[in-house]
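Action item from last meeting closed. Structure (243 res):
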């Protein structure tokens, strides 16, 4: 006895409409049944399409269905990459091959629904890992910003020299040092080593310092002495060396 495909197909359509009464839409009856069933992940909200994935599975019965595969297509995908569409179709073709000879639309829809939920879970996990990675990178960048470059003695001295050179501090310090240098005359006038040597000479000669007579008239005209500025400005000038 031959199989009545039209009757079998009509019976399946009736059963599917009772199961998917809100998700199913009958598109055509002739020459073959064509209908769509919407599937979506649990998080999906048609009013707010930011979360979850959804699509329509469009089925068309072939003349000898279910002894031959039905035609399957995906329409109106939401948050589904093109790769996901291809992968879902491949998954459904595999299920079709496993169910040839039996009414299979319910099995196809259930399997596609499960596949979609798994892909969305993978997507959420990937997004969470990406957020964690970016957070760690931001924290690491912030830590490095406060940590800065470790300072060594060599790097500090190099930095200080460059800083003083660029700000003019080095030139100013050198100028101040030059202005503080004493002339030959100034060195001679403030040299106390001669005083010490004279006192030492007197003590060795057995003279008492209290008995030393100073002839003050010898120093009355000292202001009239003319000292050679060239010699006095010579840092290497030694008093009495020219005698």
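Sequence:
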């Amino acid at each position: 006895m031959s199989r009545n495909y039209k009757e079998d197909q009509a019976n399946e359509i009736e059963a599917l409409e009772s199961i998917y009464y809100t998700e199913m839409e009958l598109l055509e009856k002739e020459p073959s049944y064509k209908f769509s069933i919407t599937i979506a992940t649990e998080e999906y909200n048609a009013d707010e399409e930011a979360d979850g994935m959804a699509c329509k599975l469009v089925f068309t019965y072939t003349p000898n269905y279910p002894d031959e595969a039905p035609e399957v297509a995906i329409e109106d995908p939401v948050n589904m990459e093109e790769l996901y569409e291809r992968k879902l179709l491949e998954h459904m073709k595999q299920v079709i091959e496993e169910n040839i000879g039996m009414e299979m639309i319910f099995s196809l829809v259930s399997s596609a629904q499960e596949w979609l939920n798994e892909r969305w879970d993978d997507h959420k996990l990937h997004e969470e890992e990406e957020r964690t990675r970016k957070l760690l990178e931001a924290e690491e960048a912030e830590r490095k910003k406060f940590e800065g470059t470790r300072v060594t003695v060599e790097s500090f001295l190099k930095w200080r020299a460059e800083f003083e050179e660029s700000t003019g501090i080095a030139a100013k310090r050198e100028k101040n040092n030059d202005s503080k240098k004493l002339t030959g005359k100034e060195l001679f006038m403030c040299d106390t080593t001669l005083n010490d040597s004279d006192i030492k000479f007197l003590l060795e000669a057995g003279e008492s310092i209290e008995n030393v007579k100073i002839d003050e008239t010898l120093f009355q005209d000292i202001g009239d002495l003319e000292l050679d500025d060239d010699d006095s400005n010579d840092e290497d000038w030694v008093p009495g060396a020219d005698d």
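Note appended to the action item: The radius of gyration is 53 Å.
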